Amino acid sequence: MTVRTRTRDRVRTVELANPDRRNAVSPADLNRIERAISHAEQAGEPVVYLAGSDAAFCAGADLGAVASLSDPAAFARHGARVARRIEESEPIVVAGIGGPARGGGVELALACDLRIATPEATFAESGVRLGLFGAWGGTVRLPRIVGEGNALDLSLSGRTIDAEEALRIGLVSRITDDPFDVAADLAQYPPDALRGIKRRIRDRSDLDSQERAEAELFARLHDRYGENLRK
């Protein structure tokens, strides 16, 4: 088993556990990640914590699996579907990046709601070095998160950046010694408020529709939690 799951403090940890290959993921591993997200939803767990074992986050797709692909387009669609599943899931998904994140590992992290790095984290969209690129939604999400100029720089050069530069360009939200603490803190809040905020911020509809949905959500939460304002 190269993906392990456990639940603690209302947080489901999904751990990539293939340290000999720096937690590279195979098609089977993508399926396991997707199932873990579904199980967290079914259990009503408000937060999922995606992390890597040992000293790496994720080296991306398992190159052995990639080299033997009979249908590369299907593999790209598979990874993109799992990334979208992470992005659109009910729980808040926090990526805890405690070491190298490369290629598909960066793309899985981009699909998460928060990316929290340790000082040892490093990042590279290194596909160009092999004549490839990030096909799990990376060319879509990376410019949204870090801006077009930074996205082009990282993707065209394949260069490696450290946690401080990742923080500066907005690739990560924070640098901390234990990213799990961030996930555990979030899990203390009302799950429906967490879900509602995620949906509103990720909403790509027109402005009028967004504003109506925002007002309706605020009213529902106010009805439910308004007593907190008087404490």
Question: Could you write a compact summary of the structure shown?
Answer:
With 231 residues, the protein is an alpha/beta fold.
How would you describe this structure to a colleague?
With 231 residues, this protein is of the alpha/beta class. It folds into two domains: 3-185, 2-enoyl-CoA Hydratase, Chain A, domain 1 (Alpha-Beta Complex), CATH 3.90.226; 189-230. The chain has helices at 27-42, 63-67, 72-88, 104-111, 138-146, 148-157, 163-168, 180-186, 191-202, 207-225, and strands at residues 3-8, 11-16, 47-52, 92-97, 100-102, 114-117, 122-124, 161-162, 174-175. It has a six-stranded mixed sheet with strand order 1-2-3-4-6-9. It is globular. This is Enoyl-CoA hydratase. Its EC number is 4.2.1.17. It is an enzyme of class 4 (lyase). Keywords: Lyase. InterPro entries: ClpP/crotonase-like_dom_sf, Enoyl-CoA_hydra/iso.
The appropriate CATH architecture of the largest domain is Alpha-Beta Complex
* CATH C-level category of the largest domain: Alpha Beta
Mean of pLDDT: 90
Characterize the overall form. globular
Question: How many strands, which pairing sense, and closed or not: the largest β-sheet?
Answer: 6 strands, mixed
Quaternary structure annotation: single chain
Residues in helix, %: 40-55%
- Please indicate the percent range of residues in DSSP E strands (runs of 2 or more): 15-25%
Order of the strands making up the biggest sheet? 1-2-3-4-6-9
| Distance linking N and C termini | 48 Å
Q: Uncertain runs with pLDDT below 50, 5 residues or more?
A: none
Structural class by sheet pairing and helices = alpha/beta
SSE arrangement, N to C: EEHEHHEEHEEHHEHEHHH
Radius of gyration: 18 Å
Helical stretch tally: 10
CATH superfamily of the largest domain: 2-enoyl-CoA Hydratase, Chain A, domain 1
- Give the total of beta strands: 9
Number of domains: 2
CATH-defined fold name of the largest domain? 2-enoyl-CoA Hydratase, Chain A, domain 1
